[in-house]
Specification:
This protein is an all-alpha fold. The protein is built from eleven helices and no strands. It is globular, with a radius of gyration of 17 Å.
Length: 210
C-alpha cells in the first residue's frame, strides 16, 4: 500500500535552500525554476517531489542530472516519455507520480481517453500498434527488468539504438522516483487534489505479475 499519505521527509522548498541546495537543484534547470516560481502559488504541483530529493544535495544533483536528460534531452518525444512514465507510475501504484504526469501527459498530447486506457495496459482496445509496444515494454521491464525479444524486435522497427536506450532509461528513472515518492511519503501540495476515488480504487486493485 502507498505510504504517500504519511510524510517521512520534509520537502525542502526555496525558503530552506542554501547555496549547496540551489546548486543541486540547478542540475535540472526547468524543475529548479518551476519550484522557485511556483512553490507558494496555486500551481505548486510537483514541487514537493523535487524538495524531497534536496534533503540529500549530493544525491539530488546526481539524480537530477539524469532526470534532466530524460526530461529535456531524450531522443524520444515528450508524448512517448509521458506514456512510459504514466504506465510505470500506474504499475508502481505511485499516486504522486501518476497524478503529476496526468497534467504533463495532457500537455504532451495524450488525450484523456488515452490516459484512462493506460491503466489497462498494452492489450486494451484502441491503441496504435507502436503505443501498444511501448506500453508492453514498460510492463516487461517492470515484471522482468528486461524487454523481451519479440517486443524489442517490434520496437526496433520504429526506433534506433539511442531511442531504445532512452526508452529503457526513462522507465528506470521514473521507476526509481516512484519508489522514492512512496517510501519517503511525498505529500500532495496544498490545493492539489489527489486522484479521484474511483481511479485510486482501480490503482490499488491492480495486481501485476511478479
Amino acid at each position: 500500500m502507498s505510504n504517500e499519505t504519511t510524510p517521512r521527509l520534509k520537502p525542502l522548498l526555496p525558503p530552506d535552500w542554501d547555496d549547496t541546495i540551489h546548486d543541486a537543484a540547478s542540475a535540472f534547470p526547468h524543475a529548479r525554476d518551476f519550484v522557485l516560481n511556483n512553490w507558494n502559488t496555486d500551481d505548486a504541483r510537483g514541487v514537493n517531489g523535487v524538495g524531497m530529493m534536496l534533503n540529500h544535495p549530493t544525491l539530488a544533483k546526481a539524480f537530477l542530472t539524469f532526470n534532466n536528460h530524460v526530461a529535456s534531452a531524450s531522443t524520444v518525444s515528450r508524448r512517448i516519455r509521458e506514456l512510459l512514465i504514466l504506465r510505470i507510475g500506474w504499475l508502481r501504484r505511485s499516486e504522486y507520480e501518476f497524478y503529476q504526469h496526468i497534467v504533463l501527459g495532457r500537455r504532451a498530447g495524450l488525450s484523456d481517453e488515452e490516459i484512462v486506457r493506460i491503466e489497462s495496459g498494452p492489450d486494451a482496445p484502441g491503441w496504435d500498434p507502436v503505443d501498444a509496444e511501448l506500453l508492453r515494454a514498460v510492463d516487461e521491464l517492470h515484471a522482468d527488468a528486461c524487454i523481451g525479444d519479440a517486443t524489442w524486435a517490434r520496437l526496433s522497427a520504429h526506433f534506433d539504438a539511442k531511442q531504445l536506450m532512452d526508452i529503457v532509461f526513462a522507465v528506470g528513472c521514473y521507476d526509481v522516483l516512484a519508489m522514492a515518492f512512496k517510501t519517503f511519503g511525498v505529500p500532495f501540495e496544498p490545493g492539489v487534489e489527489p486522484l479521484a476515488p474511483d481511479v485510486r480504487a482501480r490503482m490499488f486493485a491492480t495486481r501485476t505479475k511478479q
